[in-house]
Amino acid sequence: MQPAALIFDLDGTLLDSAPDIHAVSNAVLEQYGYAPLSFEQVRSFIGHGVPHLVDCLIKASGADPEHGLAERMIPDFNRIYEEAVTLTVPFPGVHAALETLRAAGHPLAICTNKPMGPTRSTLGHFGLTPLFDTVIGGDSLPTRKPDPAPLRQALADLGGGPALYIGDSEVDAETAQRAALPFVLFTEGYRKTPVETLPHARAFSDFAALPGIVAGWPWDAR
């Protein structure tokens, strides 16, 4: 059997980027004259892409969403976000796990709701770009996760065949389910609900365990 393609979410799965997203959010709010929000507030907004996050920032600040406020904020957010790598770090063991999986012949891809500009900037900053055969960002297609189209596009770019999706959130679980792909849950990311409430085939808390989980697939056959 050919090695399964492995498609990864980014924020909350490979990278702990919430501190930078929090800093960018408060910088944009300050620019528009609004008070800063707490880390936990902003962290809870992550996962659905920048337009959703900006809408949440506006609502949480009590701002009037009319008069095109979000449309003005989004470009400013993205401009700052593209350079926001000061506080972001890969989760422990990410580099080693990805290198092991790639060496085993698994095609690797990213499917994220993060816009392509900051996605490519962040991957490049951490030296991860060469490990991935394709990258689908939140603005690569007309729709974002949990619509399955971005995940399906990532798989098509890899040539199709068997695949697993690795993510950390409710959005990722729903995306995998709608794309009919097995979902592997990283439990240390940004999910808001208990692990047992999310549909998943396997779960892990340490990236050192991921190559073994992948090597055991297809699990139902064992």
Automatic annotation (TrEMBL):
Report the GO terms under cellular component. Answer: cytosol
Annotated catalytic residues: D9
This protein's cofactor list reads: Mg(2+)
Q: Does this UniProt record's set of keywords contain Hydrolase?
A: yes
Name of the top EC class for this enzyme:
hydrolase
Q: Which Gene3D superfamilies match?
A: HAD superfamily/HAD-like, Putative phosphatase, domain 2
Swiss-Prot/TrEMBL GO biological process terms: carbohydrate metabolic process; DNA repair; glycolate biosynthetic process
Q: What is the top-level taxon of the source organism?
A: Bacteria
Looking up Pfam families in the UniProt record yields: HAD_2
Q: Which GO terms describe its molecular function?
A: metal ion binding; phosphoglycolate phosphatase activity
Catalysed reaction(s) here are: 2-phosphoglycolate + H2O = glycolate + phosphate
Q: Which UniProt keywords apply?
A: Carbohydrate metabolism, Hydrolase, Magnesium, Metal-binding
Keyword field contains Magnesium: yes
What sections of the protein cross the membrane? none
> According to its UniProt record, in which pathway does this protein act?
Organic acid metabolism; glycolate biosynthesis; glycolate from 2-phosphoglycolate: step 1/1
Ligand binding (Mg(2+)): D9, D11, D168
Any idea of its EC number?
A: 3.1.3.18
Q: What family is this?
A: Belongs to the HAD-like hydrolase superfamily. CbbY/CbbZ/Gph/YieH family.
HAMAP family in alphabetical order: GPH_hydrolase_bact
So what does this one do?
Specifically catalyzes the dephosphorylation of 2-phosphoglycolate. Is involved in the dissimilation of the intracellular 2-phosphoglycolate formed during the DNA repair of 3'-phosphoglycolate ends, a major class of DNA lesions induced by oxidative stress.
Instruction: State what protein this is by name.
Output: Phosphoglycolate phosphatase
Species for this entry? Paenirhodobacter populi
Species lineage: Bacteria, Pseudomonadati, Pseudomonadota, Alphaproteobacteria, Rhodobacterales
